[in-house]
Amino acid sequence: MSESASTLGDRRLADRRLDERILILAPTADDAALVAEILTERALDPVIVPDAAALAREIEAGASVVLIASEAVAETGGGPRLRGALERQEAWSEMPIVLFGGDIEDAASRAIERLGTRAQIILLERPLGIATFVTAIDAALRSRRRQYEVKRLLDALTESAAEIARAHEAATRAKDEFLATLGHELRSPMTAIRGWIHLLKEGALTAEEAATALSMIDSSTKVQARIIEDLMDVSRIIAGKVMIEPSRIDLKPVIENVVATFRPAAALQGIHLTAALHTEPLFVWADETRLQQIGWNLLSNAIKFTPRGGSVHVSLVRENAAAVFRVRDTGQGIAPDMLPHVFERYRQEEGDAQKSHQGLGLGLAIVRHLVESHGGTIQAFSEGRGKGAELAVTLPLLAE
Q1: What does DSSP say about strands 95-101 and 389-396: parallel, antiparallel, or unpaired?
Q2: Whether the Cβ atoms of residue 367 and residue 377 lie closer than 8 Å to each other
Q3: How many CB atoms lie within 10 A of CB 55?
Q4: 65: which strand partners?
Q5: pLDDT value at position 243?
Q6: Which of 68, 146, 233, 242 is least surrounded, with the fewest CB atoms within 10 Å of its CB?
Q7: Is 251 in the same domain as 386?
């Protein structure tokens, strides 16, 4: 799961605070207080530390700039502690260190020797003028803020890379599951066909049994043809080669024919199929064959996922300048986390109830593409598992 916006906001706020946090190690308390006062007047965040060991700890906690007297670097143990803290910084970080001392050349050579190369050293010679001091601090802050911006970009890239890796893993898993399902879906009707053909070749069936065998073979070949047609449709969608041949179509008789086609199947499964269609013609600019395909897919899904004794209701109404075709069922419903993904290719809800039904997870993806190719929209609604579902297709009406 990607990092939340609030977490990113907290991180940016923390980085901004570190952008202004300036550590001070001065030779006397009075010097430290004077420097802190100047910084506070500029709305910065000075932190006075007592010694090199404390400074090293504060550097590791995070800071923007370090102000330090050259005497502190020369302290026994002071230099190594600071060098260790600087060397443990992340790769993006080069801590700006404003070093002030009496002998600038001597201070420079000692600072480089004792602090190493992970420090961005700015040398100031005593006595310090306020203007010079403020200019040096501003330059150090600009440099450090750019470093923190690089850090934020690196964090974002790392998160993006992790998100891409998760998406790739999910896609690979979905592909593997799809191929396994496809193999099962193609094998099942083929097994039935081969079984019935074997019995017919043996000549051991009565005339009535032979008729049943031929009917089952026909049904199984239709199942296979539908699977192959869905695969071809998806292939054409990916290639951008789906043919739409629109004309002026009255949507009402198209939906009436789809409902009539599924009445026998619904009755056979003990499902109550009802329809309430707009009384007047609803003309749309559409491909009639594709409209039928949309209706077949939606009604087939509704009946497939509705148990015996349930109901499926089809409605067609006019809403302003659009025709709205709805299919509502009392079936398995859709889990909330699955609802945003029902129109994605190869996506099927997990669970024993869903596994008991045939399907490749292509039907609704095909429907969405066809609806959008006609300038329409499709939405899915469900209150959750076991609470039924509704799919609503909205198509623009032709101007009268």
Answers
A1: unpaired
A2: no
A3: 24
A4: 22
A5: 78
A6: 146
A7: yes
